[in-house]
Amino acid sequence: MGKSFLLRLVVLCAIAFMGGIFGFKAMAWKGMTMPQLHIEGRYLVDEQGNKILLHGFGQTYSPWFNEQGSKWNNYDVNACLTYNKAKIDGLLNAGWKVNWIRLHMDPYWSNTPGVQTKGENDISAFSMDRFKTYFESVFMVMAEYAESKGLYVVMRPPGVCPENITVGDDYQKYLIKVWTHVANQVVAKGKKNIMFELANEPINVYGTGGITKYFQDIVDAIRATGCNNILWVPGSGYQSDYRAYVDNPIQGENIGYAVHAYPGWYGSDAEVESAENTGDVAGGGYRGFLNGWCERVKPIADIAPVIVTEMDWAPKKYNASWGKSTTGVRGGSGFGANFKYMCDLTGNVSWMLFTGAEWLEKYNDNAANGNTFLTDPEACVRPIFRWFADYAKEWQYESTDDSKRMTAFTLDGGNVYEMSMGGIAAMPVYAIFADGHTECMTARAQYLFADNTVAVFHNGIVKKTGAGETSLTISHTDAFGTTMSVDVEIKESALFPLTNDGFNPSIWEHGTFDETTGTLITGQYGFGGWQYPNGVDLSAYNYLVVRLKKQQHCGASFRLFDENNYWSNPAMVEFGNNTELVIDLHNLTKNETSTKLNPAHIYIIGVWTYGGGDGVQFDEIFLSNDGKTPATSVGSIIQMPKANGKVYNLRGQLVGTADCLGNLPHGIYVINGKKVVK
């Protein structure tokens, strides 16, 4: 991560279970040989097949990043090593339960002294000879020291990516040259547990084959040396977007993906930046964060492990973190608690705290809560110290029977979830064990639906796949065969809710939504509306009807996206002077093209405006088969063509025939134009 981060911010287990059920383990390897790690499917595992999650910190070996040049300078290798070894010792002595370190091979060592550069993304001063020299005398020495302390190592190349990179360009050649040398050295020294983060914060990647080809070439060059170490591949958009890899993943063994996460990213909350900043935090909250995470990160986490190699937060007033936000609460406002839950519910995410080691070694958990960076629970250090300690209890390598015996299984929050078709939810369930530690089981529990046509569970997320309601039992079985469960009801909710919970006014630019009046005021050239990260199928309906309470005067247009990307080409319908739009879903074309919109998979729906003013005041929005009345009303369904014995639900969808009514879930149906209650 470069010094320009703040400018860029706006752009954007436990034990092995009996009965063949594996949990996660974290490691305390001090005094023993560190198990060799590798990747199987979507998990990081050790030689015994135990699923592993890593939690760590980072170091950058340059004077500026080591307390702004106050500790050493002038290419003093010994002073650099002495300082940074002492920081590792200090934070471990402070009680930090960490098991990996991100090691930045800073360009301070590999750039030719005296040659001016335009920033960390400028490789014009790079010297391969200097890199080889200091790789041996600084970076490898620090890697070996970290390993001696029981820490796995993830190496990061010098500097950051230029804003625009292209397959075959000089930067790709530079990365290949750097990693080929590192791989040869790692193989020669037998360092199988040193991992590589292939680049730092790519933004835009061009050229034939795109980002996959760009990094596949680097992977292939590393593998050609005989090095089969774990490689962590970055995504685009400053390591925030991994959708391009889902259909075209990197090929080969031991491939995972390196993610960055900061306040304001993925729809999460960040401290409001303004001249009269009062410390307020705003953004998409928990729901916005969940939607953004599931859109950009979780698709790749469904097929490969993820490691978050940059992340921190604190209120701006402390001037001690890259990210500006609060810890908040899981399921509510703030960044930190929701970030942790995103990792826990995904189930295969390792992560680290990017705050400098000089802060971490000063931390004292016995100090009272206060108004400093190290004592404020709303800043990252205090909660993460305790979370890491909990993870270490949960994943101790040699555990006792008490740590395996479940005493309670709880659902955090209410047990009724209102979800619209295409919606997602993470249901936070926790197991409490006899030794007192608690584990998040959201990703690992068993989910049994009364009707699996209504909703399904996949890797931590419940998806509403169809209309209707269903009950759900979530359970977990411990190592002794004891099963505990909780029950959840999934209710039908509006597909287009005009509520603060269901409407996102800040899909692009910061906007506001007043649910009491139904008023959306977007930011300048902003967009607000509804998001469906897994897509929603509207093909069974003829029309979408949008009604306003009064004329708008902000250039509003209604837009529908059939790609999961706000920057894709939507279908657009201008409001003009109209207060009602009747949108023919089957005859929409994308803006300024002849390509038809596909209503079978809609991801984003909403309104674009110039911003400000009185905004757009919604009256109602609904799907319709006749262009006048909601399709969910019985009146509109009765008008459907009658067919002997055919059964329709209240959305007008054919669900079977009368002779199979007994197999359908309880509810209201329409047969031959009449309501039937089962």
Explain what the structure shows.
There is one protein chain. With 678 residues, the chain is an alpha/beta fold. It has an eight-stranded parallel β-barrel. Strand 37 (646-648) and strand 38 form a beta hairpin. The chain is globular.
Features:
single chain, 678 residues, alpha/beta, 8-stranded parallel beta barrel, 5-stranded antiparallel beta sheet, 14 helices
- Overall pLDDT level: 88
- Proportion of β residues? 25-35%
Radius of gyration: 27 Å
Intertermini distance:
59 Å
Report helical residue fraction. 10-25%
Across the major sheet, the strand order is 5-6-7-9-11-12-15-16
For the sheet with most strands, the description reads: 8 strands, parallel, barrel
| Total number of helices | 14
Oligomer: single chain
- Beta strands, count: 40
Topology of helices and strands:
Elements: H1 5-8, E1 24-25, E2 38-40, E3 43-45, E4 51-52, E5 55-60, H2 77-93, E6 100-104, H3 107-110, H4 128-148, E7 152-156, E8 164-166, H5 170-189, E9 194-197, E10 204-206, H6 210-223, E11 231-234, H7 236-239, H8 243-247, E12 255-260, E13 270-271, E14 281-282, H9 285-296, H10 298-301, E15 306-310, H11 336-346, E16 349-353, H12 357-360, H13 381-394, E17 406-411, E18 416-419, E19 424-425, E20 429-433, E21 438-440, E22 446-449, E23 455-458, E24 461-464, E25 470-477, E26 483-492, E27 504-508, E28 512-514, E29 519-521, E30 526-536, E31 543-548, E32 557-561, E33 571-574, E34 580-584, E35 602-609, E36 616-624, H14 634-638, E37 646-648, E38 654-657, E39 668-671, E40 674-677
Helix pairs in contact: 2-4, 4-5, 5-6
